[in-house]
Amino acid sequence: MNKRPIRLVISDIDGTILNDQHQVDYQLKTQLPLLQEKGIPFVLASARSPLGMEPIAQQLGLIDNPLACYNGALVIKGNSQNYDVLMEHGLDKKEVQYLLELVQEKFPAVAINLYSGKDWFAEQIDKWVQEEADITGENPILQSLVSVVEDRASIHKLLLIGEAATIQNLHDYLQNTNFPKTAFYLSKENYLEVTAKQVSKENALQEIAHFYHIPLQQVMAIGDNFNDLPMLKLAGLGVAMGNAPKAVKEQAAAVTHTNNNHGVAQAIEQYVLDQQLSFQNTIEKLTDS
C-alpha cells in the first residue's frame, strides 16, 4: 500500500462516481471541497465526450479542473463552449474511413457514433443511439459520417453499439483486420470503443500527473471496469469499486464499496483525507520534538 500522501485523485465516471440510476453520489459532493482546501485536484477520466462530462463536473464543482474525455483521446480545461486543449490523440483518418465502410457493409445493424472535439455525430437515431442519448443527456448531430471525417481536423473516438453477440463478432473481426494505428476495446458487452492506439486512461493519468507536476506514487486512481485497470495499476494507489468485475478487484491495490454505497467517498475518506491527517500529525510531532 502507498505510504506517501495522495496529492491527486483521478476517477472514472460511470459505475464509479455515478450510481446505477446515473446520479452523482451526494457524499462525494460534500468531500470535494475538503480536497480543494488541501490543494488535491480531483480529475474525471471517462469514455464520455466533453458535453457528457461537463454537467457532472459542474455538479461536483470541478469545472476548473481538466477533463480526460474519450479515455484520454482529448484532455481539456474549461467549459465545452470555450476550452483549451491540453492533450489530444486523434484517430488516423484513412483507417476511420475504412472502418466506416467495413461496418456499414458487413455489420449494418451496428450503430456508429463518431466524436470530434465536443461534438457527437450519427447518421440516424436508432434504438442504440437513443439509449446512449438517454444515458449521457446529449443529442447527436445527424450528418454523413464520411463528410465529418473529411471536414473535421481530428476524430477522437468512435463508439459502435449493437446486440452483444454482434458486437463480440465485430470485435473479433476487427482484431484480425489490418488497423495498425487503431485500438478496439469493449467498455460494455455491447459497446465497442475505437480510439487511436496510444489512447488509454493509463496515458491520460501520466499526462495529467505531469500537468500537475505530481509523481505517480502520489496519485490515487479509482475505477470499476477493465478499461480502468491499466490506470489502477500505474497509480501509486489503484482502487477498484466494489461493483467491479472480480478480475479487476483482484488486480487493484485496494477495493472500496460499490457505486450504490458511496464507494468513491469511502476511498477518499480512508486513503486521502485520513492519510493527510495522519501525515500532518506526524509532521507536527517531528516539529515539536
UniProtKB/TrEMBL annotation:
Protein name: Cof-like hydrolase
GO cellular component: cytosol
CDD domains (UniProt xref): HAD_Pase
Entry keyword Hydrolase: yes
Entry-linked NCBIfam families: Cof-subfamily (TIGR00099), HAD-SF-IIB (TIGR01484)
One MF annotation (Gene Ontology) recorded for this entry: magnesium ion binding
UniProt keyword Hydrolase, yes or no: yes
Record-linked Gene3D superfamilies: 3.30.1240.10, HAD superfamily/HAD-like
Pfam families: Hydrolase_3
InterPro entries: Cof, HAD-like_sf, HAD-SF_hydro_IIB, HAD_sf
Signal peptide stretch: none
Protein keywords: Hydrolase
